[in-house]
Amino acid sequence: MENNSEIVFVLHGLNESLTHRQISFAFALTSYAFTVVVNLTLIATVCVDRTLHAPIYVFLCNLCFNGVCGASSFYPKLLRDLLADRHVISYGGCLTQMFAAYSYCFCEFTGLTVMAYDRYVAICQPLRYRALMTQQKVLQLLLLTWSFSLLEAAVGVALTARLPLCGRHVRKLFCTNWEVVKLSCVDTTLNNIYGFVLMFSHVSQTGLILVSYVHLVRAAVRSRSDRRKFFQTCLPHLVTLLVFTFSIVFDSMYSRYGAAGGAQALQNALAAEFLVVPPLFNPVIYGMNLQQIRSGILHKFSVRPEIPR
Q1: Fewer CB under 10 Å: which end of the chain, C or N?
Q2: Rounded to an integer, what distance in angstroms lies between the CA atom of residue 257 and that of residue 266?
Q3: Would you call 110 helix, strand, or coil by DSSP?
Q4: Which burial class, exposed, middle or buried, applies to 3 when counting CB atoms under 10 A from its CB (0-12, 13-18, 19+)?
Q5: Distance from chain centroid for Cα 242
Q6: With the C-alpha atoms ordered 184, 188, 194, 200, is the resulting torsion angle positive or negative?
Q7: How many of the other CB atoms lie within 10 Å of CB of 286?
Q8: Closest alpha carbon to 287 in 234, 232, 229
Q9: Distance between CA 143 and CA 146 in Å, rounded?
Q10: 88-90 and 169-170 as β-strands: parallel, antiparallel, unpaired?
């Protein structure tokens, strides 16, 4: 057993031929660039358009910023590995990647919960919306979202960092908490309990959001304007929530109980789904469904013909 700080992990997620890796590099680079561009475009549109400075759009910007952070915890190392002969990562780099990826994950769950609360107040208590969702309240919710998420991730990484390791082979494209914990030489019951507590708490958040949507649907049925609000803001939020929850739960369960000898491409797709799909599709889903966002983007980036004098 060696000092953890001296360990260099070997990543075993990339076993394709050089030609396939070059194609994968082009695809990954395009996907990463598109993810960053669409998220930053939506953020810039909201920032420069004063009519979009409402709480729901502020929370949407937070979701997009978090998506860029999540994608950036995965793509740069993947792109480097696709061009390298050896796929390795230092112990410190592994813990850093884990912290960034899980901070994104927890912030996504909490951010979606905050957005559900905003939609609940807007549709079910419209007369109290301005009084409840003040600028100060919005800032407090954002601070709570990030503080809570970073703390959860830090505790998880700290619990993993204390473990002495007897192996260095990570069977994934990137470092995950469970893959590193499996390399430990000692009992990992505390890590397992903490992992299941986190999974239960965040899946419970999804349950609470779905319960709130029952009230939203009831309110939407009674009013045409509420129906329009529901389809424009709540429906894309619900799609985003379900896609992300499915990605996280499926990856967690497959990592623990999935067949070790399954197809590598399938394992890679399942492992990276929660870092690739939500950041890519969140701004697209919201941009297509929110008329104000769509109009703002077209207004800011359309080419206006010059009027001759």
Answers
A1: C
A2: 15
A3: helix
A4: exposed
A5: 12
A6: positive
A7: 23
A8: 232
A9: 5
A10: unpaired
Of 100, 277, 250, 254, nearest to 172 by C-alpha is 254
Distances (CA, A) of 303 to 300, 306, 308: 9, 9, 15
Alpha carbon distance 261, 184 (integer Å): 21
Rounded Cα gap, residues 262 and 266, in angstroms:
7
Closest to 279 in 3D by CA, of 74, 58, 97, 44: 74
Contact call for residues 31 and 82 (beta carbons, < 8 A): no
**HEC profile of 114-135:** HHHHHHHHHHHCHHHHHHHCCH
The residue count of the chain comes to 309
Question: Is the CB of residue 194 less than 8 Å from the CB of residue 163?
Answer: no
* Helical axes 264-289 vs 18-48, angle rounded to 10°: 20
The terminus-to-terminus CA distance of the chain in angstroms comes to: 80
Yes or no: say if 147 and 110 are a contact pair by the CB < 8 Å rule: no
Inter-residue contact 213 to 238 (CB < 8 Å): yes
Structure-token match 């060696």, residue found: 2
Return the biggest CA–CA distance within the chain. 80
Spatial contact of 39 and 60, defined as CB atoms under 8 Å apart: no
Cα torsion 5, 10, 14, 16 to 10°: value is: 150
Query: Which of 199, 160, 152, 153 is CA-nearest to residue 183?
Result: 160
Q: What is the pLDDT of residue 213?
A: 79
Task: Kindly give the parts of the chain with pLDDT less than 50.
Answer: 309
DSSP state of 169: E
Tokens read off for 268: 């890679």
pTM: 0.85
